[in-house]
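Please produce the structure of this protein holding nicotinamide-adenine-dinucleotide.
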Amino acid sequence: MQLLDGKALAAKIETTVVNEVKELKNKTGLVPGLAVILVGQDPASAAYVNMKKKACDRVGFYSVTHEMPSDISQSAIENTIKMMNNNPNIDGILIQLPLPKHIDTTKLLELVEPSKDVDGFHPYNVGRLTTGLEGFVPCTPLGVMELLNEYNIDVKGKNCVVVGASNIVGKPMASLLLNANATVEICHIFTDDLKKHTLNADMIFVGAGVINLIKEDMVKDGAIIVDIGINRTDDGRLVGDVDFEKVCEKCSYITPVPGGVGPMTIAMLLSNTLKAAKAHAKARV
Ligand code: NAD
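Below is the modeled complex.
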């Protein structure tokens, strides 16, 4: 079994981003800018935003976090997004999800200017991904594809089972795999007999948010396992959706949690924001 080391690859990508930021600054005087909208006091959301801000600082981006109280109005958030859409110092806009129940998340995501949609959640970019066109791709599944690429793992013709069908993780993961010519099955909470599907998989991509969802008897020998889940145990440890200790003995490659997909998500946010900044700089000349 070999670990797919997302931490190491993310560090390598950061170094490339640092150099490209310097180059962009020398050529154009511009630095990439990321605006994050954080609503409410959810500790997990605050921690993610903090990690993203620190990553921006490390690579030399300009970044700003708009912190808003949980009872903020829809229109106040919309106004902030419109302001960021028109702000030339901002190349990427990220709305930290989930948002409070009274907020219409879809409406907000649709308001983000697609060329600043570094999370790839705008229907314009979702449509481009599903039709195999260039656009912004959600950071987590994009990071998974980069990680596979780093280890020369080709998904073409492989039976890939994606467990979890959210707009953020499962669906874009499935689109990327299909675009790379894998045979893709998507399983979710209503899937009957999950094991029947996973046992047939050459590769399993799981992002369900359920501790130990994938057990050793659900995995065929030599399978490749990508664990996207992030869960906190009662004693405070971070774990994924896979029963790692037992499953790792059966598979050929596996991502650890932490240190697998998580760092790649942040690295892809940086590279998407850099990509947006380069496109904006090009459009200005
Ligand atoms: P979500 O709640 O929006 O979606 C969960 C999906 O899993 C749903 O499609 C649901 O049907 C499916 N599911 C739930 N229980 C299941 C079960 N018992 N069997 C089969 N399918 C089941 O969650 P999300 O935002 O997609 O996140 C999923 C997980 O990925 C979470 O643990 C989250 O923390 C993690 N995540 C990690 C990263 C990262 O950077 N590694 C990024 C985003 C999300």
